[in-house]
Amino acid sequence: MIGTVHYLALSAVLFSIGAVGAVVRRNVIIIFMSIELMLNAANLAFVAGSNSLGSMNGQSIVFFVMTVAAAEAAVGLAVILALFRNRQTVAADEIALLKW
Amino acid sequence: MDLGNAASLAYHVPELVLAGGSIVVLLLDVFTGMKARLGEVALLIVAFAIFTIGYGASAQQGYLFNRMVALDSFALFFKFLFGFTTLATIWMSTGSRELDGEHPGEYYSILLAGTLGMFYMASATNLLMAYLALEFVSLTSYILSGFLRHRERGAEASLKYLIYGGVASGAMLYGFSLLYALTGTLDYAELGHKLAAVAAVPGNGAILFIAVTLTLVGIGYKIAMVPFHQWSPDVYEGSPLPITAYLAVGSKAAGLALLIRFFYPALSSAVGDGTWTALHGVAWPTLMSVVAMVTMTVGNLTALRQQNVKRLLAYSSIAHAGYMLMGFVVLTDGGLRAILFYSVVYYLMNLGAFAVLLLVVNQTGREDIEAFRGLAWRGGAPVAIAMLIFLFSLAGLPPFAGFIGKAYLFAAVIEQKMWLLALVAALNSVVGLAYYVRIARAMFLDQPVAGDPEIAVDTSNGVLIGMLVAGTLVFGLWWTPVINFADRSVVFFGN
Q: Which sequence spans correspond to the domains of chain B?
C-alpha cells in the first residue's frame, strides 16, 4: 500500500535531485530546470499532505506555485536571452565578470 | 476584525493606489508622449500612497482577505518605510544619468509593483501569502537589477540574482510544504498553536528543524545573511545605482519584516512581560545568533579590501544585516524595537551614501574609491561633508543617528546577557570604521590629480542629500519620536 510517507519520501528525493542539480550543473538552462524540480517537489508534498489531512489548502497552493514558476521561467529565460546576446554563452563558469 | 474579500478593500487603499499607479504609469508611457515626466508621476503616486497609509493608520487593526494579510501597527511601520524608500529611489532615478532614456514606463511601473510586493511581505499572515509576496518582490527585483540589459554586468547580475533567488525560494517553499504536512494549516496563528503539539511528538523534532531551516534559507537570502549572501555584492555592483539603493534598504527591510512576523507571532509565544519563548525543540535563536556573528564578521572583513564603492557598500550592508539580527535573536520586544529603529536610521544613512555616490558616478562615470579622490577640493566640499556624516553614522560614531541605533541593539543584547554576541559586534564596529575611514581619507586627505572632473551639485540630488543629512543629524540628537513610533509598532494582530 502506497501511503503519505511514500509520497513525502519521493518529494524529498526530488527536492534533493533539484538542489544538487542547481549546485553542480554548469549550464544555466539546466540549473533553471533543477529549480523547477525543487518547486515541483514542494508541490508533491503539498498535495500529499492535503490528501492525508483532508484539507484543500494544500491543493490550492499548488496552482499558485505553478503560476509563480511560469512567471519565474518567463523572467529567467528573458534574462538568459539578454545575457546570451551580450556574451554568446550559457555556461555558468564563463559568466564571471563580477567577483569578490 | 476579520474581514472577507469585499469588505477588506476599504482598508487596502495604499496597495490599491500602488497597483493602480503601476498600471497608470505604463498606460501613460504607451498612449502619451510624456516619457520624460514619468518619474514625477511615479513620485506623486508614491507620495499619495504614503498619505493614504497615514490616513488609514487610525483604523481598527485586524485580518483582511480572510486572514491572508494583517492590518496592524507592525505592518504600518514597514509600509511607511517602504513608501519612503521608493520615494527616494524614484527621486534618485530621475537624477541618474545611467537610467536616462532607458524605458522609463516599464522602469517606474515595475518599481511601484515591487513596492506593492514589499507591502504584502510585511503584512502576510499566511504561508501562501508569504511565498507569493516574496516571489513578487524577487521577480520585480530580477528585472530591475538587469534593467540596463545592454551592459554585460547588468545581465550577469540579474542572472545571478535569479539563480540564487530561485534556489532559495524553492527551498523555502519546500520548508513550507513540510510545515503544512505536519500541521495541515497555512495560517500563521493556527500554525503556532499546532506546532507546539507537533514538536512534543518524538521524532518530529528533526523534520521540524529541517522545515524551519529551509524557511530560513528563503528569507535569509532576501536579507543577505551569511551563507546566503553571495549574490548581493554582484547584484549591487551590476544593478543601476538607484536600484542598488532600493535593494539594500527596501528589499532588506522587507525580508526582516517577513522574518520577524514568521518567527515571532507564528513560531514563538509572547510571555506577557515583553519577552517571548521560542518553539520547544527548535533551537533557532542559538542558530541565528551564530549566523548573526558570522554575517557581520564576513561582511566587514570582506569590505576591507574592496575598491569599488558600490561593492564596499554591499558588504557593509551584509554587516548591517548582521547587526540587525542581534535584535532578532534576543526574543524580547526591546530587541524588535531596536531592529525597527535601526531600519529607519539605516534608511537615512545608507540611502544618503548611495545618493552621494550617484552624484559622483553621474559626473565621473566611475564607482571606485579613486573617483572620490580629493572630492572636497574640487567643488564637492558640501557633498564630501555629507558623505562623511553618512559614513561615520554607518560606522556607529556619536553624535549621529547610527550610534543611537547601535546603542539600542547593544542594549537589547546586553539585557539578555549574551556577552559573546555583544563582544563580536563591538569588535566588528571597529573593523567597520576602518573601511569607512578609507573613503573619508580619499575625499579629504588625498589631493585631486589633474584630469579629475569638477563636481557640481545639482538641485535635485542636493535637496535629497540635504534631507537625508538632516535626518541623520536630528535623529542622532533627538530620537525620542522615532523610538516611540518603533515601540508602538511592535504590535502584532492576532497573537
A: 283-495
pLDDT at B437: 93
**B365 and chain A: CB distance < 8 Å anywhere?**
no
**Count of the separate structural domains present in chain A:** 1
Ranges under pLDDT 50 in chain B: none
For the CA atoms of B35, B38, B39, B40, what is the dihedral angle to 10 degrees? 120
B417: left (phi over 0), alpha (psi -120 to 50) or beta: left
- Tens digit of pLDDT for each residue in B422-454? 999 999 999 999 999 999 999 999 888 877 788
Domain span at residue A30 reads 4-94
Residue A100 maps to a domain: no
Instruction: Determine if the pTM surpasses 0.80.
Output: yes
Verify whether the Cβ–Cβ distance A98 to B143 is below 8 Å: no
Which of A40, A79, A90 is best to mutate for the B interface (most B CBs within 10 A)?
Answer: A79
Q: Which amino acid is residue B354, in one-letter code?
A: F
CATH of the domain at A42: 1.10.287.3510
Half-sphere exposure of B298 (CA within 13 A, CB side): 20
- What ipTM describes this predicted complex? 0.95
CA distance B131 to B136: 8
Chain A residues 5-64 with CB within 8 Å of chain B = 8, 11, 15, 18-19, 22-23, 28, 31-32, 35, 38-39, 41-43, 45-46, 48-50, 52-53, 55, 57-58, 60-61, 64
B residues 128-187 closer than 8 Å to A (CB): 128, 131-132, 135, 139, 142-143, 146, 149-153, 155-160, 162-163, 166-167, 170-171, 173-174, 176-178, 180-181, 184-186
| Å between B434 CA and nearest CA of chain A | 19
- Identify the burial level of B493 via C-beta atoms within 10 angstroms of its C-beta, where 0-12 means exposed, 13-18 middle and 19 or more buried: buried
Orientation angle between helical segments B127-145 and B204-222, nearest 10 degrees: 30
Grid coordinates belonging to B213 = 531551516
A48 belongs to a structural domain: yes
User: For residue A100, which residues of chain B lie inside 8 Å, CB to CB?
Assistant: 233, 302
Residue of chain B minimizing CA distance to A39: B170
Please enumerate in sequence order all residues whose Cβ is within 8 A of that of B309, keeping only pairs 6 or more positions apart, or say none. B357, B367, B368, B369, B371, B372, B439
Q: Quick: pLDDT tens for B177-211.
A: 999 999 889 999 899 888 888 888 887 888 899 99
- Angstrom distance (rounded) from CA B191 to CA B262: 10
